[in-house]
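Hey, can you fold this?
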Amino acid sequence: MGNILYRKSYKIIGLVVCFLLLCTAFILSVSLGQTNISFRTTLEAFTQYDPNSTEHIIVTTSRLTRALIATVIGSSLAIAGALMQALTRNPLASPDLLGINAGGLFFIVLAITVFSVNSLTSYMWIAFLGAGIAGVLVFFLGSVGRDGLSPIKIILAGAAITALFASFTQGLLVIDEQSIQSILFWMAGSVSGRSLEMLFPVLPYVFGATLCAFFLGRSINVLLTGEDVAKGLGQRTMFLKIAMGVLVIILAGSSVAVAGAIGFVGLVVPHIVKGLVGPDYRWVIPYSALVGASLLLFADVVARFIIMPQEVPIGVMTAFIGAPFFVYIARKGLTKDD
């Protein structure tokens, strides 16, 4: 795949532009919504906060919280997708397509309906567990057979596990109809109605996983040259793969625990980024973090206005963007990472 920003200086400038784009998306997310609030009033909500002003309260609580959560979740899903595409060498790999999101969501639904769990911290660990089990199952099924792990087999395994956990989730809804309303909160995939109390428990893990991913860029580049070459250069490839898998589980599990099942961000963003900077993961990961956060913020802003006064779940908006992209990649017949 060719890249537009082929010089290091261009990539640095591009990184700055992406950061400014993220800032713009964040400002729009805080400023725009069903309640018409001017940019001046939005600014005053932070510089001259008035606790008696309804507009200031909306900006500093609902909208600011929503923007912060969208930023963290968008970044996490994009990085997880980039890591999965490198780990599996499959351009169709992403947390939602390989069953990781479905596994985390099913375990949360199971905890709510069967065990009546209502602790936000518990949701985080339950989502991690579900994401981890789903990931292990996909890699196990994708590795069975004479040829071992292959891009096609892992996609088929991911589709099977996704369908399995989705059917389990639907089965629980049929059994316990009284819990449907609380469960739809997670199934819809949305940053609306969430609170910072839901984000804080996962934030240290997301930050640590993101930081680790940044430092793995050079090692991932070596791994992508071929496992035999990487081992010849002294790389502990198995340790690196396990580390990448753990990071994906943390990032995807955290996203499900906070915002539910939001799809296609992890699929689309790495391809956009590679079109800009090429396959060098020293640049792919930081670019993915910024572009993923910006994409989810813009999607959330658009979702507020399509069917006003109602809102479209952000998972629907990302699917609207990502589904045609998925079809395009599948039709191109790509079976290995660029």
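Oh, and this one too while you're at it.
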Amino acid sequence: MIAQLSRLDELAVVSGRPRFEEKLHVGRPNIGDRAALMGRIEDMLDRLWLTNNGPLVQEFEARLADYLGVEHVICMCNATVALEIAIRALGLTGEVIVPSFTFVATAHALQWQEITPVFCDVDPASHNLDPRQVERLITPRTSGIIGVHVWGRPCAIEELSEIAARRNLKLMFDAAHAFGNSYGGQMIGGFGAVEIFSFHATKFFNTFEGGAVATNDAELATKIRLMKNFGFAGYDNVIYIGTNGKMSEVSAAMGLTSLESVDTFIAANKRNHHAYRRGLAGLPGVQVIAYDDGERCNYQYMIVEVDEAAAGISRDDLVRVLHAENVMARRYFYPGCHEMEPYRSYFPHSHLLLPETEKLTQRVMSLPSGTAVGPDEIGPICEIIRAAVENPDALRPYLAAADGRH
């Protein structure tokens, strides 16, 4: 057990001695049953079938479809390619409305295909697309909407579905954060035309690297299966334009192993989330985002909003304090997509239309969670944050010196 922080001069920005010897990262991979994983890999090697829709991929897709309660799951090499293929399969063109408060791959998947991402502001409470703002951005060139279930908290699914149906737009969801979550008792995966999952190593549920498309549309699923394998509809029979989006057998082996441990991973995330909430309760200007305990939830992201006016310290300075302690907190999503290239050059005034997004990019940070951390780490992390928030004036000269500021 790490000793409690008792004095301000014990903070590493003052003393130079970090609380943790080893860096605590956001999104450190969860590893399930190693013996089960290695057994699957040994079987794969014995079969000499490493890719091209092998038995492990087929089993993984079937088990995912059952877990998500959807008709079709198509596994991919990563979620970005899954997004690109789904966008193309849906026939999106012209302009598509997306949040700027998301990982840049959501926008890149459109721009890569010469579709204009139209950045929409978010609801400050949910951090997801604000349906009222979506409605205002629709033009004759708009072909679709991509909602992102940020932090795994579902979008305003009913409102976005109503807008899409009334305005004859395609609706899909980037569910990279939302594997294992539900909305209205229904698992995320079956909403909109398609939903896209990420199984990257930093996600709580990983396949080393990978992603998937989930849909209840059989015709769309057939098209996506063709597109992810060069358009092959059988031996030497190409009937559609496609690319290489296939998941490998070794990724599926990891996916099956992760699926067997998914409840354990979620339990660790939930334990950590509630430990952080207890540890940071009542701290002015520091708000831990809430999840709906009435729904299924993966509790994957440990997100804190820092209000500098109330806390007396900025999010960025709090991140500096934590980094000095080897707590590798992350600014999410910083900056917003609209401030990244090429979008910053294409839309130089977009920040004027995204006030809530601009605020969130300056306030939000993510803290370490997952099976790599527990009470022995979370308690001291909360103490560090408390010490910084309770002594901002005393810390300011040390932060300025560490940052080279005067």
